[in-house]
Design a protein that fits this description.
The chain is mainly alpha-helical. It is built from four helices and two strands, in the order αββααα.
């Protein structure tokens, strides 16, 4: 999956999760996934905790964070 395809899995919609970035089709914040990784959970453990997620959703969260770190995220539409 390309970086663009991963980023398309991220939704920023004022009507969902107060406009916070989340995985499209869920109400799981990108920050929740990143916090779990930072705490040492593996992607498989995150998927166990959030069965609605797919492996590429975890990768999408990391790709989104990388874009933010590069300051490349200006707007991702729903």
């Amino acid at each position: 999956m390309t970086r663009k395809e991963l980023l398309e899995r991220v939704s920023i919609n004022p009507g969902v999760c107060g406009g916070q970035p989340c995985i499209k089709g869920t109400r799981i914040y990108i920050s929740v996934i990143l916090d779990a990784l930072a705490e040492g959970l593996t992607p498989d453990q995150i998927l166990d905790h959030y069965p609605s997620l797919q492996p590429d959703d975890v990768r999408a969260a990391v790709a989104y964070a990388a874009e933010l770190a590069r300051e490349n995220i200006w707007k991702i539409t729903a």
